[in-house]
Amino acid sequence: MDVILLKFLRARDFKVNDAFEMLKKTLQWRKEFKADSILDEDDLGSDLSSFAYMSGVDREGHPICYNIFGAFDSEELYEKAFGTEEKRGRFLRWRMQLMERGIEKLDFKPGCVNSLLQINDLNNSPGPSKMELRLATKQALGLLQDNYPEFVARNIFINVPFWYYAFNALLSPFLTQRTKSKFVVARPGKVTETLLKYIPMEEIPIKYGGLKRDNDFEFSVEDGGASELVIKAGSLSIIEIPAPEVGTTFIWDVTVLGWEVNYKEEFVPTNEGSYTIIVQKARKLGLNQEPIRNTFITNELGKIVLTVENCSGKKKKALYRYKIKKSACF
């Protein structure tokens, strides 16, 4: 109760009367909504998991909640979520359940992480022309703002289309200034760059230009940290991975913010009499290039050489990581 009260005080800039009134309304809402038992309900949103889910943490340790609005481009899923008033009510209840599950990941001790980071992906979203989605979004935002104050550290909107700005203008009157101050907006070409300000590269999913892959058996949280390389305009940079012994398996990930670079991969033997092996021939990597992962097993001493050539007039930033494993057959 003390934690909830503190959240309300912060949300109202410590105006005690407003905070207590808001708290009273929320306690009444929780009673009517039966929010205290919502975590025990297993049948709310198994078919909605492609829309919203929890995954990873940001640089400050906030659990991350992803909202994928493009999932509702599917007519089947849209019908399941918003086809009737009953389904819309179930959707809202499921979304509040996800919020409660996110809160379970928080620690309300002094100095600990006690709020979430939300990523809202608007790529391929049906947009405001879908009335049911528009109303449900407005209702969900209202419930989260009124009943979960200060539980969201930041709301990042990515792949934002032009219609978003008109839609945001419609919602704006219903949002407090404190809520709006937590909004960050990124157009499609700035998604990775924006997310990287708040989330480590190894925690950003590959579809957003990061290094995080589903069910990744090669890199873990403990050994998956990425190194950074700045590539000056009109220059060429090299990443070298040495082979400490014969029978080495190399595994590496590389991503470049903004891409539009030339890239190649080679194995260069230590023995000058041996030939350089082309692992990946030189090619231009465009703006929509996903992060690269590759592997190579060597039968002699040498090194993997990754070459990134920046022909543009602006500097680029490459992030990479690698692992070296001894092959079982040696």
From TrEMBL:
Query: What CDD domains does UniProt report for this protein, alphabetically?
Result: SEC14
- Domain CRAL-TRIO: from-to ranges: 41-216
The protein's location, in the record's own words, is:
Membrane
Q: Which UniProt keywords apply?
A: Membrane, Transport
Q: Name one GO molecular function term.
A: lipid binding
Among the Pfam families in the record, one is CRAL_TRIO_N
Provide the GO biological process annotations.
cellular response to auxin stimulus; protein localization involved in auxin polar transport
Tell me which GO cellular component terms the UniProt record holds: membrane
- Please indicate which superkingdom the organism of origin belongs to: Eukaryota
Q: Which PANTHER family match?
A: PATELLIN-1, PATELLIN-4
According to UniProt, the name of this protein is Patellin-4 like
